[in-house]
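Weekly sync notes, structure subgroup
Attendees: PM, AL, DS (notes)

Item 1: joint prediction request from the bench team. They want all two components modeled as one assembly rather than separately. Inputs as received:
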Amino acid sequence: MSEDNFDRLKKCAVEVLGVDADKITKEAKFADDLDADSLDLVEFVMALEEEFDVTVEEEELEGVETIGAAYDLVVGKL
Amino acid sequence: MSDAITQTDQTATPNRVAFVTGGSRGIGLACALQLKADGFAVAVGSRSEPSELADGLLWVPLDVTDTDSVDAAFGTIEEQLGPVAVLVANAGITKDTLVLRMKEDDFTTVIDANLTGNFRVSKRAIRPMMKARWGRIILMSSVVGTMGQTGQANYSASKAGLVGLGRSLAREFASRNITVNLVAPGPIETDMLAEISDAAREAMVGAVPLGRVGTPADIAAAVSFLASDGASYITGATIPVDGGLGMGG
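Output from the run, pasted for the record:
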């Protein structure tokens, strides 16, 4: 089930961030590894909100620097 | 013009879509027709359906004070023409009266339509532009945004506010190759101008260095340029098209 969720997140990341699927690991950092800026991150989170039907508040994005952190944040709301 | 667009920008879709709000008459309609002549597929939005509309323009119902209406308008355009690449945010209203007689509602209604309305429209337009890594937003300001105008405290405030909105959008989305600029018309021959008295009109024309009222086509020419590839290095700018009325402002 959780693998499923990660695949869904991966799909969003590939689509929004325009990177190869194999670069999307839980350790991957948005800025350093994925070349994603703050606008990319907002777009990515908006895609996740749509995909998982959750709402993420602006403050919750504070300190979210890796794919894993974004995953935990979103999956924690399911 | 359309040849130039396809030749100089190979990543462009051959037929980019332009959306002009308040596009069924006056300045908006002139912009729509010019963009059509430039090779864009053009949609126009307005509250009520125009009794007649030039061939080749798609009309969509649009109330910029209603987020759902804005969303529906974009949805229809995306379905029928494709994602909007050029937004001309032109819809606006006036409720002129001296401040002492201006009800708070007269003020907030104009701000909601002219300023918040263009925020709603721009916000809805941005995501597809981000995806395309190409977009142009052109906001219709006014010379009175910087000069002020007796009887137009609400309208002037809304038009000045657009400059701040436009410049902020320009900064936020520059990295996505979206430019945001403003055009600031002076007195232009439209229904809006027809509402003022002959004396006020005469005084206004007297103050214009070029000594005449402008035409909607004068504004459309500036919009056409800002939408073209020739304007790709211009963002956050306000282009006055006012016969010199506001110069130095």
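Discussion: Chain A has one domain: 2-75.
Action: AL to compare against the crosslinking data before next sync.
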